[in-house]
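tool=predict chain=A
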Amino acid sequence: MTLIPNQSNVQRCTVALTTLFVLALPAAAAGSWESARPGRPLHFPADHASHPAFKTEWWYYTGHLQTESGRRYGYELTFFRQGTEPALKPQNPWQAKHVYLTHLALTDVDGKTFRYAERTNRPGLGIAGAATDRFHTWNDDWVAEELGGTQHLTANDKDFALDLLLDSVKPPVLHGDAGYSRKGTCDSCASHYYSLTRLKTRGYLRVGDQTERVTGLSWMDHEFGSGQLEAGQQGWDWFSLQLSDGSDLMLYRLRRQDGAVVLQSAGTFVTPDGKTRHLTRDQVTIVPKGTWRSAASGAVYPMGWTITVPTEGLQVTLAPATLDQELRTARSTGVTYWEGAVSATGRRQGQPVTAQGYVEMTGYAKTDRPKF
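tool=predict ok
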């Protein structure tokens, strides 16, 4: 399906576009877009940049911050690039092959509050875009870029803003088969996917009219593909954890409409020195402790989880910083999802361990499956 946004219908169109969270795209819909393929090498820093031959791409940041006064926060900043039609030849700046959508969220861990903002723009007149020769993506004055090996994030909303510098202490983590991540059985049900799992973070955070210096630890995901999920898949639960022993964990569990967990669900364990071990679906158990119902959307989410990875001698129990960390993105992706800061306690190889991280849950609200 071809969607060509214009000034009057861009909001309506982008609700129907697929992004990371939109699960209605059949695998065959990739069309003339390039598909993820095994054996495609990833090179850095070149592959931090945009890949416009693929239909969907996102740069995803989450992190935990602490102010000089000791207050704790979690943040999310995600930039999406969504292709509309690869053969389109724009006749004016308001016609474009891509739409750019961005989500910004802040969790006040100590105050138990959550706020978020969203933006949608086309690349006309340079309002939004993503460079192909270096890492630089922007949506108006919300920006993520790399300068001299340091990543710089800036985002300014009326209620809160962040200005952060991020330095990776581990090499990029290639998920799946050297960065080729399967999401189903079909040839195009895949993406290229890597993470920077441990980014030392410093900068400034504004909440209301108060600005403070912050330090912390962030996580970055970058993923690109053209048709990742098959029909019948309802959503997923995704977990990232940064453990106190220096190791990191990423897991995703794809769910079918009947609740079954898809075979291609997987994960990656990262040792303190940056070595990686792939985890299959059956090497991990994830057991929720309860549920939470959103008064705003009516969605019921699992809440509080025990994760066990026997091959790593790991068992941790996760707790959300606050229950309501739901984003309802009617002005951008049109999808309702839960993306929130969590903490964890448990044991690894017989030793006590703590962790901080983020959990993302999609497919629990009715608006998670827009129709084409």
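The chain has one domain: 10-368. The chain is about 0% helix and 50% strand.
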